[in-house]
Amino acid sequence: MNKLKNTAIRSPRNQRGAALVVSMVLLLVLTLLAVSTMSTASLEVTMAGNAQYSENAFQLAETGNEEYIRTMRNNQTVCLNDQNPTVCDIPQTNVPEMGGSYQTTNAFIDNSGALCPNSSATVTRFDFQVQANGQSADNALSQHTQGWAFCKP
User: Closest by alpha carbon to 107, among 90, 75, 129?
Assistant: First the structure.
């Protein structure tokens, strides 16, 4: 019985601090895992934000092209000008809902004599090109070029 008592008493003395060391190592591992997870999550949030900024810039450039075509159709006598194709350019226009802006520049390309659809030979085709630039938050940029033609006698 005496031997059992000594064994029971010695056992805790030999393991003094072992639970503390094991728990500290596990705590360290869990802390590293948590820091790594937070770093990955932070990177993913940044990537998602950049993708959104890029998409906004794309949409702003598309809006610029559409607005130019609309302006040109509503003001054909002024805008359809092969001598001064930039007369209806849209200056930098802010779009607060999207956190950015767009602007357009039009250029005269050619009046090569290409035939206009459903027209006689007396109609001349003028080819133009509008370039729209969209810029959103965090300096995301997008540039879109769209060609268009107009036929006039």
Answer: 129
Gap between the Cα atoms of 116 and 108, Å rounded: 17
d(Cα 140, Cα 47) in Å, to the nearest integer? 13
User: Which pTM was predicted?
Assistant: 0.71
CA–CA dist 137, 40 (Å, integer):
23
Residue 114 CA to residue 120 CA, distance in Å, equals 11
Indicate the SS3 state at residue 35: helix
Would you write out the chain's pLDDT as a tens digit for each of its 153 residues? Answer: 555 555 545 555 566 777 888 999 999 999 999 999 999 999 999 999 999 999 999 999 999 999 999 998 898 888 888 888 889 999 999 999 989 999 999 998 887 666 777 666 667 788 889 999 999 988 999 999 998 888 876
Backbone φ and ψ of 122, nearest 5°: -85, -5
Q: Amino acid letter at 97?
A: E
Segment (H or E) for 125 = strand 124-136
Size (the chain), residues: 153
* b/e per residue 66-93 (b: at least 16 CB within 10 A): ebbeebbeeeeeebbbeeebeebbbeee
